[in-house]
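Final paragraph of the annual report: two paired records, presented back to back.
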Amino acid sequence: MTAMRCFSRGILMWSAAMMMPAVADFVPPAEGPVPFRRDKLPVDVDTMTALSRQISVLAAAEEAEKPDELRSVAQMAALSLALDPANRQARDLIAAAEKGDMPDSPDSKEIERARTRAWQTLSWLEMPEAGADANALAACLGDVLAVADPGHPKSKERVSELGAWKDWVATKEAFRTPKEAFRTPKEAVKPADPEPTDTTPPEPEDGGQKAVLGLALADLEAAMPVWVHDAETGVESLQALKVTFHGEISGKGRTQLMIPGEGLTQRMAKPFQALEKAMEARHGTLPAGLTVSLGFGKSSYSLSRNGTALSGTAALLLEGALTGEMPTAITLAQVGEGGKLELPPKFWKTLRALSEMPGGGRLILPDQAAEFLPALLTMNDAAFFMKREVVLASTVDELCNLAAAAPQGPAGDAMKRFGEIRKVGDGKPLGTFVAHQATQQRLKEVTDLMPKHASARMLALQGSGNRARSLARPVLAREIRRSLEPIAVLMTLKQEEPTAEAQLDKAHAASREVLDSLTSYIDIRDRDLHKAAMDVTDSVRTLSRLLSKSENENNTMAPKKNLAAKAAREAYLKAIRELTAAAGDEVDYPLPRGAGGGN
């Protein structure tokens, strides 16, 4: 095997009389203008250097025989040097190309590794929040990756170049060799070596779907809000859990799901089957013998606390693996029959806890969440809709579309406009800002483009002054039930414990604090729910006072304490039953036996 590959397989045999100098096929790139500044890119030097090397590997793998192939090599070399001017491999590539030769192609594993990592970097660079310079780099990088990896799903979406190559890399016409102009009718041409027969199956007709033959990304991760129980403190809290995805393809059999944890794989089977069908409908088919392994690092996923909410995040991860686009949103949704999105267990409680967590970004909720969102305005939490861009989706297909870094169509336009609203409103008093006529008009433009843009709709409602003053009964029931969670200690408390009185006093104070804060949000017709909860706290207070008293000589205190404990437990269980019935979520909220549940 020779060390160099010739650009052209055909060799023209010229007569001495007609011999003329040949015009070079390759036009080296200019030093600029480069459409982005390295110091403005949101990546470190090591990442830029690594990306430069990856593009050089892809350039060396090109056939580089036809004018468009030659230009692609020039584009890749130009981009490599723009990212790392010290990239010797890129400069050697240009020098070799000018001589009409190319080095041997890198091995297939090196090429595949370069493609995968470059696509991963592109997913971040093309996000709007990455900045203008990163987006300009992404446009150029997407152009060269579409050539280097034409089978990638994102390559097929690219119908034309998006990068600013003008005056940096010559047009395709400049790479043509006008040999036809120098030929005479008598000149002989040595036939080119025969090309191998193309056995690639034909592309499907317009309107058909092409099967996904592999994974664009085999490994990726996404954040998911998860309820975690601390065994030492007994406290349940919402935490951002990193969910990892690893995909393998055997080429045979159906898709399989693997989740660490006792019984998780079996319990998640039904929603994952619904997800599988939804993704098959979206992509035509899934790779044969695909095995999906989800992990949680050193943490664990509690099915009793989170249900099958993992299926929503699994949808985003699987979509990212198939398309090469990293998930740019989080979701509070689980996948139901027919690929429809449903509210996960403890939805209201999770939503409230998520509001208190730091961070922002896009949050995708099921359509059913719409009835709960106005309650956040009632409870003076309109800032949640400015901190997080909340949008609604009804199906897995819609979820995946909205989670893209730059959604297409009206939704993408709406999100760009909302981003501008957030920029203008940053640092300004929220109430005044959203009530301003200009802001109201801009919010209306967003909801006109995207009716399911919940953040814009809720902020517009806040600014109009027409928000509800009281909580809807199902939401109020959930909020009151949440206030009684500290009282759950009553179900396992032993009266003889030295700390029993202190535990009850602490639970009473915590519950009353929340219950007292709800009084201004209660409609007169729903006061029965609040009274039932107040009765529970009163019974706990009574029990605590009795426990503080010492036994008398007639031993009458013990029976009184036992009766008070029984009355307090019965009042608690009765209130939980009534509140759960009013909330309408009996399936997701079983009657507590020990520690409290959630809502």
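The closing record of the year follows.
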Amino acid sequence: MMKDDINSDPTFNLVTEPWIPVTYTDEHKADVSLSTVFKDADQIQEISDEFPQFRIVLLRFLIAILLRAYSSQALSKRDALALWSDLWTQRHFDSEYVDEYLEHFKDRFDILSPVTPFYQVADLTYSDEKKEYDWISELVPDIPKPDKYLFAMKERSSSPPCIKLSEAARYLILAQAFDFAGIKSPVEGNTQVKRGHVYAPHGVVQTGFVGAIGGVYVRGRTLYETLLFNMVLYDSRASNSDKESDVDLPPWERSLPSCDIVFREPNGPVDLLTWQSRRIRLIFDGEKNSAIGVVICYGDATVSYDKHPYEWMTAWRSDGGLQKKLGLSHTPWVPLKHDPSKTIWEGLSALLAARNEEGADVRPGVIRWNETLGEADIALPKSGLIVSICAQGIVYNIKKGSSAIIDSIDDHFDLDVSMMRHDAQAAAASIDLVSRTDQAVLSLMRYVRNMESSAGYMRQNSTMENDIRECAYSELNTIFRKRLSGFTPDQDIDSYSNDWKEEVRSVLLDLGKSYASAASSSAFSVHRVKFGKKEELMTSGKAQILFYRGLTKALGSPTFNSGSRIEEDSHVEHL
């Protein structure tokens, strides 16, 4: 914290104060300012914090700054690629753009400003005179509240919690992105008060906006590369004419917001990257060295569907049910959220080659942008550069306008940059392997079910099948991550794919053998089992045959693999 030279008021300006936790390429950690994070971007490995979701929200924030600093006006595809190529080659951001931009709006990045505090509303006040503010834990997902918890990562304390100013800055950005829905205390100027409360607005995103998408970004070897890979300068899905300098603005370039809920559409990608889903005012201690409380209520409100022209960090899907429900004339696109029970690579198709029923490209905009880069005649390597596809998000338990955070998503897999082209043969083969593996795992699940049925057990329920599936994918996880990162253009597609299939087959056969070995001797008796309306005899031998047929249908016939053939007959003898 610094003292303002003119009036001696304390300041904490994000442009100059260290507040972004990073890990440098030499592994040392530090908190850096906005000015330093851009200056040192190619020496910084990544943003690092104990709460992983800070990475995606801070990336979105930094990208918004870069987009405004470099391209306040719409760029043609040619100009966008030329600018990106120059940045990739020079390996640093231009101070005449970034530093001058930050200096121009520096007063709007001060979280202690009495007039224009960063990401806050200066005069936000609760309507109830008896309630001055909430504890700062209302803003922080990993500090326990007196009566309820989000993530109980810290020890219970009987005294009100407080956080450093650097942490407060990060949690401001996090709250705008991921805050949970629920009943809020009314603030002065809010017109949506019912029975003394403000309820989550109906028909729009009720959590922070990023909480409503399946967050995806591309990670490079350094923060500089990561920022460039996700700094989408051109997207054919967007009408670039809508992206004008006086319309698509971040909050620090706009006039101060009202205290009320505002139902509106985003004006462009920068607006959405910095979407102000909440009205917030931080409360500080007497010396303004730490944040001790918060006043918070709902802010800008919008729907999550049909945001694909401007929201780049999520995959999409068509939703005919929503079209019917809302009576729309078109089928809306909705964000494809992450399934916490699955790894990110299990959704490979949606990331690398998805098409909806009309044949439209519903991949994340950041993947489409990297495909555009790979097809262009620029300095970026066409292959041989390994990047990471990262998934981050929050899982909420949403009930009647309120929500609680019950899980978080933080996953990634590595792949060659060439795989981000939708027509890449390696990508198509990998997607096919994921689909085939899913069918093969179903065969394993049926096998275990049939073995239990042959013994007269009727423990055929979704919990058992989910446990089998989870076990199978846990065993396959390392194989798939290694195979995806190793599927470079110099690999023979058929040979690499066949070896991959055999690894999958071997794992599932071994799991089948383990399940059979764990069965009691009664598992080899004969029982009648219902298959739909039919009733058939089930034996362990028949269960084995059906299992092998299922694997063959999913993965093809066994092939020679590194000189040794997977012998199904030998597994039959031991199963």
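Residues 143-156, 561-575 have pLDDT under 50 and may be disordered. This concludes the annual technical report; the extension proposal builds directly on these records.
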